[in-house]
Amino acid sequence: MITNSASLLTSSYDFSLPKELIATHPASPRDSAKLLVYIRETDEIIHTNFSNLEEFIPKNCAIIFNDTKVIKARLFGKKTSGANIELLINKPLNALDISVYIRGKMKVGSELLFDENLTAIVTKLNEDGSRIAHFFVNKKPLRFEELLPIIDKIGHIPLPPYIQREDNKEDESEYQSVFAKEDGAVAAPTASLHFTKEQHERVCSRFTHAFVTLHVGSGTFKPVETEIITDHPMHSEYYSISSEAKNILLSDAPILSIGTTTTRTIEFYARNKNLQKGEANLFLHPNNKPLRVNHLLTNFHLPKSTLLMLVASFIGVNKTHELYKTAIDNDYRFYSYGDAMLIL
User: Fold this and answer.
1) pLDDT class for 220, splitting at 50, 70, 90?
2) Are 174 and 190 in contact (CB under 8 A)?
3) Count of CB atoms within 10 A of residue 207's CB?
4) Percent helix, strand, coil in the chain (nearest 5)?
5) Distance between CA 57 and CA 34 in Å, rounded?
6) Peptide bond preceding 29: is omega within 30 degrees of 0, i.e. cis?
7) What are phi and psi of 242, to 5 degrees?
8) Which of the four pLDDT bands, split at 50, 70 and 90, describes residue 337?
């Protein structure tokens, strides 16, 4: 039993997961994934499939989705010395300054060479291991929006590190929601991956719904390494809230949030109602509970991750561990390509 004070300890969010339960490929079809439904009011657990999701959504609920689109952020190239390098785009800081991660030693001024006459020059080394780079084609500086069509040709889908395989053609469509629209994420909002086009259209026809955008950054995979969770430096990600979503958020309608990224966006806005777009760095945990989201659809997350702590902000640490143990005992698949959980 984890006490309230222990809920601030990072160690309280650890658990053991059999390696074979880490999903390395998506369910096919998407909505054939398992769905664990937890009803808080009755403390009931139901095991079903994602295709049955609509049966459990409260009738008066409004649903909010994240329409971010994963870009081909993983690039392979060479240093001017000829050495191979791998670069991961994290996010644009402004039109020209791009936050990136690069494997291997770098110094300011290092030039990196890619296909399609694309080059990058490192302009700054950050203490957190990230780098800032400027991109060029034939020595012409590129704005981020000009870079996107080039990396779409030469880049790779940035699969999470725990999948431990190279991306393939299937991932270009499968590691993307069917309603993805706004380019900018380097990781998928994974609860969204379970929707087929038909199911999404069906849900949207039955329920009030809207979209927000939160461009998921690589910080989503960063484990909490501090002893106390509130000492963790939370990453920030660009968000934008549509006028339709804003109207729902300002109403009294109960909200089902599709995924942790949507939840962070909604909850950041709930605390900063004058900011319809910007950088969100909200950290939800049992001592910082949701103010506006009533119900959550989510996947099963990494130990000691801010995503697991977000789940605990809805149901507490002990219940989170209980549900995760139930999922493990019932062979649910974990992480980005894994199964889903609906908290009502």
Assistant:
1) confident
2) no
3) 17
4) 30, 30, 40
5) 16
6) yes
7) -70, 160
8) very high
Q: Average pLDDT of the chain?
A: 96
Closest among 255, 291, 274, 272 to 65, alpha carbons compared: 255
338 DSSP assignment: S
- CA 285 – CA 277 distance, rounded (Å): 23
Query: 276: burial class by Cβ within 10 Å (0-12, 13-18, 19+)?
Result: middle
pLDDT reading at 45 higher than 80: yes
The CA distance from 214 to 269, in Å, is 12
Strands 74-79 and 111-113: antiparallel
Cβ neighbors of 70 (< 8 A, separation 6 or more) are 157, 158, 175, 176, 180, 185, 186, 187, 188, 216
CATH 3.40.1780.10 fits 5-70+169-343, yes or no: yes
pLDDT digit string, tens, across residues 173-205: 999 999 999 999 999 999 999 999 999 999 999
Answer whether 185's CB lies under 8 Å from 212's CB: no
CA distance 141 to 96: 8
- What class is the 74-154 domain? mainly beta
Q: Is the pTM of this model over 0.90?
A: yes
pLDDT in tens, 58-79: 999 999 999 999 999 999 999 9
